């Protein structure tokens, strides 16, 4: 499968049509869905009709830009009027949306074709996408393994060539984790950069939405279409939008990249550590000024994030808490924990958050980008609760969020990019930047990523 | 250490003994770690979320 950039070029050169691209995706969905379970809802007829309309527009000289006619998918928590929106939950299994999410409004306006809604972890509250109500989503690189989550169907769909892009949400890593385990690019923009209107909240002060794609350039095209202020989202930012598309001759000259000496390499699969080390050498060879840095206490930051999320998730889902039988056995205990978090501890976590924000602002005075592994491990097996990293056991959920959760607490933009494979499974690097500096991250991503295969 | 089982009961959570024990274990660990973290806070540390009055309130 091609990237969005390549498909867009082929469309304009009349080497293909939106209907043909859509048919190719639908064929792959039909073939791979029984194995991967990447979709909850496939909109075959609607997608083909929409693609035909996009082709007619192009033929009439109406070109909406690079996303015109491109088949994409949405995680099944982005509302689309008239389409089922389950949020991976029994609570909403029959819910038909009456509104369009802001992200879909923008993507629709940019000319995308909607293939369907992707599978996910129940209520986006977890990292495996092993869903008790809709079945386990599986990793295209090894169906015995998880695709990550909570946007697991989106990661699997993009990696398997079922869609050119799929939207995800990220409250503690839920875009970057599936991107890393499935070997795609995943962009979590700055908090408030892309409107969350029409997406069921999980953590009000932690939720982000963003694309999973086959390249950083593709992610830039998608961000370009979606970024901007939305008065319907209380957290939406009025900060100006940028030109996100990296130049063709992307280099890293002048970019200061921080390479952490603490935390991020303490408990990591040695093959991933080596890959990130090689990536930093490649960055230096491309002109980046790579320097080792000491990062603030990420474990403490993660802890503050856990307390905030436990409390916010309960607040978000309170109307449904008495329907205990409708929650899966992984999500319900988290909600029970959240119900016992005190108001004072929630505020203390928010006070700690502010301290860490200031400490990271200080760090980013001396660097432009922080380069870390996205994950400390390769994709675990479906149903595996404990993982072993260099001989030490660790809870699979906490291990998978160890490098991502804190970045949501800070609200900083972060980009997961593929950086090779080990045992046939993808490895991934995380690039973290200053608020609203997605353009710089995407430029670095374009220069450093390996191709999605 | 908080008596999590008693708090859960007071909150009306219908937990089995096994569920209550698991909950207690997780929250004990969280409380231990978070108590250490909170000791770093200074009196002047404000929360990250700040109330922003709507424009109509300011008029």
What does this structure look like?
The complex is a heterodimer of chains A (453) and B (59). Chain A is α/β, with parallel strands linked by helices and 453 residues long. Chain A is built from 14 helices and 15 strands.
Radius of gyration of chain B: 18 Å
Binned, the helix content of chain A reads 25-40%
Tell me the distance between the termini of chain B. Answer: 48 Å
Order of helices and strands of chain A: HHEHEHEEEHEHEEHEHEHHHEEEHHEEH
Tally of separate helices of chain B: 3
Assembly type: heterodimer
Strand content of chain B: under 5%
Average of the residue pLDDT scores of chain A: 97
* Strand adjacency order, main sheet of chain A: 1-3-2-6-8-7-14-15-11-9-10
- The stretches of 5 or more residues of chain B where confidence is low (pLDDT under 50) are none
Q: Summarize model confidence as the mean pLDDT of chain B.
A: 90
Summary?
The complex is a heterodimer of chains A (about 450) and B (about 60). Chain A is of the alpha/beta class and about 450 residues long.
For the structure shown, list the relevant keywords.
heterodimer; A: 453 residues; alpha/beta; 11-stranded mixed sheet; 14 helices; globular; B: 59 residues; mainly alpha
Write the layout of secondary structure elements.
The complex is a heterodimer of chains A (453) and B (59).
Chain A: H1 4-12, H2 18-36, E1 39-42, H3 44-59, E2 71-75, H4 102-109, E3 113-118, E4 130-131, E5 135-136, H5 152-159, E6 165-170, H6 176-182, E7 185-188, E8 208-213, H7 216-226, E9 256-260, H8 270-285, E10 289-293, H9 298-317, H10 331-339, H11 343-366, E11 369-373, E12 386-389, E13 392-395, H12 396-401, H13 405-410, E14 414-422, E15 425-433, H14 438-448
Parallel strand pairs in A: 2-3, 2-6, 9-10, 9-11
Antiparallel strand pairs in A: 1-3, 4-5, 6-8, 7-8, 7-14, 11-15, 12-13, 14-15
Chain B: H1 4-10, H2 17-38, H3 55-58
């Amino acid at each position: 499968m091609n990237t969005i950039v390549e498909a867009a070029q082929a469309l304009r050169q009349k080497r293909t049509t939106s209907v043909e691209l859509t048919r190719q995706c639908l064929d792959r969905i039909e073939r791979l869905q029984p194995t991967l379970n990447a979709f909850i809802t496939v909109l075959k007829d609607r997608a083909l009709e929409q693609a035909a309309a996009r082709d007619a527009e192009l033929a009439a000289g109406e070109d909406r830009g690079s996303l015109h006619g491109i088949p994409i998918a949405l995680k099944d928590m982005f509302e689309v009027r008239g389409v089922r929106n389950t949020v991976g939950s029994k609570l909403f299994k029959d819910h038909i949306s009456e509104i369009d999410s802001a992200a879909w409004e923008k993507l629709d306006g940019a000319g995308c074709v909607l293939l369907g809604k992707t599978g996910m972890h129940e209520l986006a509250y977890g990292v495996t996408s092993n869903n008790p109500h809709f079945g386990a989503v599986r990793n295209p690189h090894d169906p015995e393994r998880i695709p990550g989550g909570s946007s697991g169907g989106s990661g699997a769909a993009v990696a398997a060539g079922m869609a050119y892009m799929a939207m995800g949400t990220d409250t503690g890593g839920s875009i970057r984790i599936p991107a890393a385990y499935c070997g795609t690019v995943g962009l979590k923009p700055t908090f408030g950069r892309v409107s969350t209107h029409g997406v069921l909240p999980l953590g009000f002060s932690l939720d982000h939405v963003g694309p999973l794609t086959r390249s950083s350039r593709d992610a830039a095209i998608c961000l370009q279409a979606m970024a901007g202020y939305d008065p319907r989202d209380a957290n939406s930012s009025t900060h100006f939008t940028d030109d996100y598309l990296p130049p063709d001759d992307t280099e890293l000259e002048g970019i200061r990249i921080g390479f952490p000496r603490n935390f991020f390499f303490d408990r990591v699969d040695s093959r991933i550590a080596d890959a990130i080390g090689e990536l930093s050498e490649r960055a230096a060879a491309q002109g980046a000024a790579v320097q080792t840095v000491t990062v603030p206490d990420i474990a403490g930051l993660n802890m503050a994030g856990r307390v905030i999320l436990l409390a916010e998730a309960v607040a978000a889902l309170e109307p449904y808490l008495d329907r205990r039988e409708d929650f899966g056995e992984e999500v319900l205990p988290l909600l029970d924990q959240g119900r016992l978090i005190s108001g004072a501890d929630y505020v203390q976590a928010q006070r700690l958050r502010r301290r860490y924000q200031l400490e990271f602002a200080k760090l980013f005075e001396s660097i432009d980008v922080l380069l870390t592994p996205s994950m400390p491990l390769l994709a675990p097996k479906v149903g595996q609760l404990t993982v072993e990293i260099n001989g030490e056991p660790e809870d699979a959920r906490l291990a998978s969020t160890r490098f991502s959760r804190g970045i949501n607490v800070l609200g900083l933009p972060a980009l997961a990019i593929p950086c090779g494979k080990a045992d046939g499974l993808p490895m991934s690097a995380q690039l973290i930047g200053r608020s609203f500096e997605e353009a710089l991250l995407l430029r670095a991503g374009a220069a450093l990523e390996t191709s999605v295969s | 250490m908080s008596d999590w089982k008693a708090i859960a009961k007071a909150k009306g959570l219908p937990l089995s003994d096994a569920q209550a024990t698991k909950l207690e274990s997780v929250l004990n660990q969280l409380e231990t770690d978070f108590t250490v973290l909170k000791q770093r806070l200074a009196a002047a540390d404000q929360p990250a979320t700040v109330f922003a009055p709507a424009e109509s309130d300011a008029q």
